[in-house]
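Exam prep: given the inputs below (a chain plus phenylalanine), describe the expected output before reading on.
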Amino acid sequence: MAKTRERWGSRSSFVFAAIGAAIGLGNVWRFPYITYQNGGGAFLIPYLIALITAGIPLMILEYAVGQKAQSSPPTALKTIWKKSEWIGWFAVVLVFVLATYYATIMSWCVNYFYQSFTLGWGNTPRAVETFFNQTLLAKSGSPGILGGIQLPVLIGLAVTWLLIYLCLFKGVKTLGKIVYFTVGIPWLILIIMVIRGLTLPGAMEGLNFYLTPDFSVLLQPKVWLAAYGQIFFTLSLAMGTLIVYASYLPRNSDITVNAFITSLANCGTAFLAGFAVFSTLGYLASAMGVTVPEVTTSGLGLAFVTYPTAINLLPVASRLFGALFFLLLITLGIDSAFSQIEPVVGSIADKWGFNKRKVLPLVVLTGFIVGIPYTTKAGFYWVDIIDHFVCTYGLTLIGFLECIVIGYFFKASRIREYINSVSDVRIGPWWDVFIKIVTPIVLGVSLIYELIKLIQKGYGNYPVWTAFSGIGLIILLIVLSFILSRKRGNL
Ligand code: PHE
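Solution:
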């Protein structure tokens, strides 16, 4: 590459940016409801196993690929094996799709933040539910009925994309400074929320549910799949983010220690967030006179129905805690949101030699426009459906392909030698075993199992055609990736 590559200001900027990308709504919105749906405390076991067998090995791999190739996912993978550029593009188009619905959830958070000043979501549990389902989202009843656009959600979406643009337009050096705030502030708020949560009456009931394992759920494959899907989502794996971030590091930077720091900081934060969430749920259960599993059944809506209800019930300073909680979600989410856009911008700029500053506004505008259907009355269902297909099929497929390409075509031992030559902590042949055998088998089996289940039952309670659109989307993205990889570039 002729031009000198952009660089992070320091090693800690990179580590913070990677932690910021990892810690996001996935920790506070997705982790609790996935844990809740998959047996509470018992879920922590497959989660930990997924972290060790797939999370950390793949993170080391992605850092190594980006740093060694000094370029974005498509071109980085191309230098590893000529025919694999499309896998890089697949990750990039997939993360773009993810970004469009992630921004929609951010928009809900922006709306709640605004409402928190007046506790505008009403003061009974029923009112809160009505606020989410009817006032804010005006759910249409079926994914096929789009209805009109919900103006506040559209405005929230515009605010989110504007924030993403502002964080990114100055380049990686400035980004490296912003992330100290977008990682630091949420940690501070989270600690306040944990302390507040633990001091509420009934908190212990919630924690019992969170920490007491029910080992029988470990026999269900669905729990294991959920754990692997969550690890991919939460560590931002298989989406190009880590490859592009690592490509702004000099070639001789440490890899293994950075990977351990990022993944442990992320999962530690999710575990901590669990205390805030489940103690609050315990409080809610005791205030409503029900048991914890009876509090709510809604997955996606957990953060948006349960928390405001709990916030209302707080004896003091409920507005302050409400605002803090949604500020927590926004600051947590924003560095993840822009980390989803950077690989898209970086990949286009790297392949065709464009200036990133010119590409960024176009990507942001396209992202906003593509996201508009999520602001309709059927938006909630589509966020749910697309999230499911992107995370369950898209991410596992890319993770699987990365392992195969790097494990067999490039040779895992060769890249391990490179990793060890620059890292303080050396990794042994166990890593090759994970990349070549354990991880691809687990991912491959999960993928096939899920596909069979999908064909038998469809997804959730939605009409069958939605499952076809989900699978159709994934196929379309693969075709698009091939087309992009065929286009002539500067590299
Ligand atoms: N890891 C982020 C979260 O937990 C989500 C994310 C996905 C970020 C993909 C970057 C890329 O919220």
